[in-house]
Amino acid sequence: MALIVQKYGGSSVADADSIKRVARRIIETKNAGHDVAVVVSAMGDTTDDLIDQAMSIDSDPPAREMDMLMTAGERISMSLLAMAIHAAGSHAYSFTGSQAGFMTDTLFGAAHIKAVRPDRVRRALDKGSVAIVAGFQGRDDNGDATTLGRGGSDTSAVALAVALGADICEIYTDVDGVFTADPRIVPTARRIPVIDYESILEMASCGSKVLALRCVEYAQRFNMPLHVRSSFSHRPGTLVIPAGVDPRELPNI
């Protein structure tokens, strides 16, 4: 048995059918004998829609209120996914970033994680339930909601995996891993089965959007293996691991 953190991006939870498909995948992992914690992004274009609504009211909204608003999208995703898991016959608890113990500084819109204290997440896992956490968010020392900026849900997932001592952090997206170029633009692009942190950091700094730079830096700092996969297929994806590590030494997941 392994402890796995799975992160699902906005395209993976874009609508009710997608959320049901993700729920089935989580339950499959659970039924294989693993403990599963999940981090979710907001559904589809929810975040952009919230920003548009805010700007239609105030062209220069207060940063604190924007962060309060921005946390709503992930809260919708987490609760609907928990409901989908219940409807499929399993059990889940959903948690906001604050409830999951994500403590940040007070840089609204681009906060940095200072600590993760996932006590409630761990208790849910100990009960045999799936724990679902809203990505991209936390709270500061004043108790105010904060957001982590671009790629924040990826960073949330890695930080949660590190705090829980997970065996691996799976990043689910709409492509089948890391490629030599964007396969949606370059049909001849090749999937990279295994890549080290330094190489993926170089790709991210050059504009690759598969993984956020902060997410990879966090994973590298704590040697957390990443597995970039598509939520729309069961293809093998890409492992992101320290240079010199044999992927066969990782848990058989």
Automatic annotation (TrEMBL):
<protein>
    <recommendedName>
        <fullName>Aspartokinase</fullName>
        <ecNumber>2.7.2.4</ecNumber>
    </recommendedName>
</protein>
<dbReference type="Pfam" id="PF00696">
    <property type="entry name" value="AA_kinase"/>
</dbReference>
<comment type="function">
    <text>Catalyzes the phosphorylation of the beta-carboxyl group of aspartic acid with ATP to yield 4-phospho-L-aspartate, which is involved in the branched biosynthetic pathway leading to the biosynthesis of amino acids lysine, threonine, isoleucine and methionine.</text>
</comment>
<dbReference type="GO" id="GO:0004072">
    <property type="term" value="F:aspartate kinase activity"/>
</dbReference>
<dbReference type="GO" id="GO:0005524">
    <property type="term" value="F:ATP binding"/>
</dbReference>
<dbReference type="GO" id="GO:0009089">
    <property type="term" value="P:lysine biosynthetic process via diaminopimelate"/>
</dbReference>
<dbReference type="GO" id="GO:0005829">
    <property type="term" value="C:cytosol"/>
</dbReference>
<comment type="pathway">
    <text>Amino-acid biosynthesis; L-methionine biosynthesis via de novo pathway; L-homoserine from L-aspartate: step 1/3.</text>
</comment>
<feature type="domain" description="Aspartate/glutamate/uridylate kinase">
    <location>
        <begin position="3"/>
        <end position="230"/>
    </location>
</feature>
<dbReference type="GO" id="GO:0009090">
    <property type="term" value="P:homoserine biosynthetic process"/>
</dbReference>
<keyword id="KW-0547">Nucleotide-binding</keyword>
<keyword id="KW-0220">Diaminopimelate biosynthesis</keyword>
<keyword id="KW-0457">Lysine biosynthesis</keyword>
<dbReference type="InterPro" id="IPR001341">
    <property type="entry name" value="Asp_kinase"/>
</dbReference>
<keyword id="KW-0418">Kinase</keyword>
<dbReference type="InterPro" id="IPR036393">
    <property type="entry name" value="AceGlu_kinase-like_sf"/>
</dbReference>
<keyword id="KW-0067">ATP-binding</keyword>
<dbReference type="GO" id="GO:0009088">
    <property type="term" value="P:threonine biosynthetic process"/>
</dbReference>
<dbReference type="GO" id="GO:0019877">
    <property type="term" value="P:diaminopimelate biosynthetic process"/>
</dbReference>
<comment type="pathway">
    <text>Amino-acid biosynthesis; L-threonine biosynthesis; L-threonine from L-aspartate: step 1/5.</text>
</comment>
<keyword id="KW-0028">Amino-acid biosynthesis</keyword>
<comment type="similarity">
    <text>Belongs to the aspartokinase family.</text>
</comment>
<dbReference type="InterPro" id="IPR041740">
    <property type="entry name" value="AKii-LysC-BS"/>
</dbReference>
<dbReference type="InterPro" id="IPR018042">
    <property type="entry name" value="Aspartate_kinase_CS"/>
</dbReference>
<keyword id="KW-0808">Transferase</keyword>
<dbReference type="InterPro" id="IPR001048">
    <property type="entry name" value="Asp/Glu/Uridylate_kinase"/>
</dbReference>
